[in-house]
Amino acid sequence: MASTTSKSYYWKGFRDGTPFIFVAIPFGTLFGVFATETGLTIIQTMAFTATVFAGAAQFAALQLLQDNTPTVIILASALAVNLRMAMYSASLTPYLGSAPLWQRAFAAYLIVDQSYACSIVRFEKEPLMTTPQRMAYFLGSVTPITPLWILATFLGAVLGTKIPESWALDFALPITFLAMIGPMLRTMPHVVTALVAITVSLLTVAVPYNLGLLIAGCVGMMAGAQAELWTLKKEATS
């Protein structure tokens, strides 16, 4: 019965993650095109996307590479952009931390914005899910995204500059984050975090190498944590 239930949650995750393929495909294709325009070969592009497997960090690194930025800055910036994965991992640990080590290692590789967004919303809605059910759901949510991301990257790398600019594939990035953020803005601390981060990112747009985003993320998290403490204190006294 347990395996059947876990299988059912896997397909629930698969269904919840499927809509993101309409963003992953153009986003991956755009990365492949951008990578070849930057000077990477198809093999280098595919090795990059398969090992890093983090779209925003990959784009940031390529943009800096195109601007002839020093290697140390490129690595530091990509790491800074990808620090949110550490936050995602910490957020998922209470739900998946008791899973076997090999499953946690596999899940760590597959943490992307979409799989995190789907999973954390589901886990919070259904707190009685078992660890195998949660892991099954998490893997299901990323299953439709991963192969299509890699395939789309390959197609983009092959097509290269042949894709017309009129297709405007760069719409994928903002739509992806809007689609993920919307369902998660369910409490005041979440809203405060988002608003503060947006405000600070606009104020720090002139900071070199996109480091303003890291500053905005840190300030937003601090504001959200403070709002959470204020909310808990208010509930305790009411």
From TrEMBL:
InterPro entries assigned: Brnchd-chn_aa_trnsp_permease (IPR011606)
Mode of membrane association: Multi-pass membrane protein
Any Gene Ontology biological process: L-valine transmembrane transport
Residues spanning the membrane: 20-36, 42-65, 72-90, 135-160, 166-184, 191-207
Subcellular location: Cell membrane
Any single Gene Ontology cellular-component annotation: plasma membrane
Keyword vocabulary terms for this entry: Cell membrane, Membrane, Transmembrane, Transmembrane helix, Transport
Family: Belongs to the AzlC family.
Protein name in UniProt: Branched-chain amino acid transporter AzlC
Organism field: Ruegeria profundi
